[in-house]
Design brief:
The complex is a heterodimer of chains A (114) and B (141). Chain A has 114 residues and is of the alpha/beta class. Chain A has helices at residues 26-39, 56-72, 83-91, 104-111; strands spanning 2-9, 12-21, 43-47, 51-54, 75-79, 99-101. Chain B has 141 residues and is α+β, with helices and mostly antiparallel strands. Chain B has one domain: Histidine kinase-like ATPase, C-terminal domain (Heat Shock Protein 90), CATH 3.30.565.10. Helix content of chain B is 34%, strand content 28%. Chain B has a 5-stranded antiparallel beta sheet, covered by helices on one side. Chain B is globular and about 40 Å long. The relative contact order of chain B is 0.19. Classes of the chains: A alpha/beta (114), B alpha+beta (141).
Amino acid sequence: MLRIEKTKEETTDILHLIGEVDASNSVLLDQSIQEVVQQGTSFLLIDGKELGYISSAGLGVFMSYLDDFSERGIRFAIFGLNDQVGEVFKILGLDRLISIVPDKSTAIASQHES
Amino acid sequence: MNHKLNLSCSTAALAELRGFLQQNLAFYRLSEGDKHQVTLAVEEVCANLIIHSHDCNPKEEIHLEVKALDKKIIVEITDKGDAFNLLEYEVPDLSQVIGEKRKGGIGILLVKKIMDEIEFESKNGKNICRLIKNYPSTGNP
């Protein structure tokens, strides 16, 4: 099961992923990101605190947008991943391509850097 | 304890697969992180078979069996039909995946990074893929 809640804090769009992302529902994640990108955003944050599991289907969705994000000048970060899910990103080296931070305040603070 | 599962070839069945693996891996001396990763690797292979070899036809099935042998856990995945030999599958590198905006191709890369050994055999229309994880050596977490 996957539920995605969308919120906005000032100029930051946040997608809160609740449950598990696999090949049966990764299309929902894709649609949600697509919507945010089309509506226009400068900063997209993924709240992963309640993400219990993600398979390559979900990781692939994030990866497919990385070029888009940089072309459109959208900053992107993921926060709150539990150890096991965070490790899955590391196995593929995605932690070097995606900003993965412990919590929301770190993510928002890092937005103002550089 | 039932160490076997017949999985319907539908992506909706993947949650059932994770439940089965969680139950069956619970008693082995693997860290929670390793259990999570083995579950992921098995799911990647099954999702691949469901989508690419069986066109998500829920009437077709994949057979799974979890076995412990010596200091190894073996998950045996058997299906009938077109063989997908992941040993011969050339995994893409990440920049390729990103550049082509393809939303696949990294599942098998995960499997190869997670599992210690992978065996594949195909005969008489039956394909068997064995994913093998070694127990961590004693003393190490």
